[in-house]
C-alpha cells in the first residue's frame, strides 16, 4: 500500500499562500466592473481592455440576439431590423420573443426606459437608447414612457439639491423630445412630480419584496450608503408595471413592457423580474445595448463628468472636430509608413467605432473597415469621416431642439395629456 504524502512544510504552505494571493491579485486586476454607476473593462498588465460582452451575457444570464431572432423580428413586424440590431449594438435580451408573440397576436405592450437627468447636455452615448426607442415606437405603435430619475441624482450626488435635479429633468425632457417623439404617444415624467398614488403603491409592494441583502448582493451597497439608495431600486422597478400608469392603461395590470437599456442597468430588472412573479405582474422584457466607448478607448464608456471623454449634444462643430482629432484613440500604425505597410485595427479605432453607431450605410461602413485594415485609408481620413458624421448628427439635433417649446415639454410631462392607442382599445 502506498504511503500518504508527508505534510507540507510551513515554508511550503507560506509559499503556496503567497502564490495563491498573487493569483487572486491578478484575477482581481483582470476583472471587468459593470454596474449601473461604474463601467470599466478588465485590466491586464495594467492595460485597460475592451468590455467582454460575451462574458456579460454569461455572467448576467441573458441571451444573445442571434440571426434566428432577427429573422423572426422581420417576419413578425414586416420591418428590416434597425442597424443597431443588425450590428450587435443591441446585442442581448430577456424574452424579446415574448414581445414579438404579443405583437403577432395583437396584444398590447409598452416601451419603458429611463434617464438620469444631465447637469448640462446629454452626450451622444445617452442618445442611443432614444434613437432606438423612437424606431421601436414607430414599428410597433405602442406607448413609450420615460422615467427621469431626478430623485436618484439627488441621492447619489451629494453636491446637488432637489431643485437643481428637477431643473435638470426638464432640460433632459426637452432633449428627449427633440429625438422626434410626440406627446400623444409618449409620457416623460420626473419622479419628483409623478411618484404618488398608483406609482407609490407599486413602489411599496416592490420594496416589501426586496430585502436589504438582495439589494447589497445585486448592487454592492455598503452599510455606509444611505437608505435612499437601497430604496431607489423599487422606484426604478415600478414603471415596469402597467398599473403604475392608470392615465395610459386605465388600471390594467396585465400589460408587459419592453425595456431597451444599457447592459449595466440589467441588475435593476433582474430583481424586478423576480418581484413581478411574486406580485403576479407580467415580467418586463429587456433588450440590452453595448456602451459607446469613451474617446480614449473601448475599455470604458463616455462620461458626462469628463468633458474630454465625450461628444455632447451641445458641442459646436469646431468642438467636435477638436475632440476627435485630439482625444480619439486611434488603431492606426505608429507612423503613416507603418500604417500603409501593416494596416490599421478598426476594431479598437474609436473614430471607426463611432461610425458603427452613427453611419447607417452598411456598404460604406464595410468599405471603411476594409480600407483601414489594409492601410489604404489613413487615421486622419478615418477621423475626418467620423467628424463629418457626428457634426451632422449633433447639428440636426440642435435644430430640432430649438423648435421644442416650454409648452411642448409641459405636454410630454403631463400625465393627463390625451394619449390614445388602438392596441389598447378593448376588442369586442
TrEMBL record:
The enzyme's E.C. designation: 6.1.1.2
| Classification via CDD domains | TrpRS_core
Query: Where in the cell does this protein reside?
Result: Cytoplasm
- Provide the GO biological process annotations: tryptophanyl-tRNA aminoacylation
For molecular function, the Gene Ontology terms on record are: ATP binding; tryptophan-tRNA ligase activity
The answer, when asked if Lipoprotein is one of the entry's keywords, is no
Q: Which InterPro entries match?
A: aa-tRNA-synth_Ic (IPR002305), Rossmann-like_a/b/a_fold (IPR014729), Trp-tRNA-ligase (IPR002306)
A GO CC term assigned to this protein in UniProt: cytoplasm
Q: Which family does it belong to?
A: Belongs to the class-I aminoacyl-tRNA synthetase family.
Protein name as catalogued: Tryptophan--tRNA ligase, cytoplasmic
UniProt source species: Mycoemilia scoparia
- Identify the coding gene: WRS1
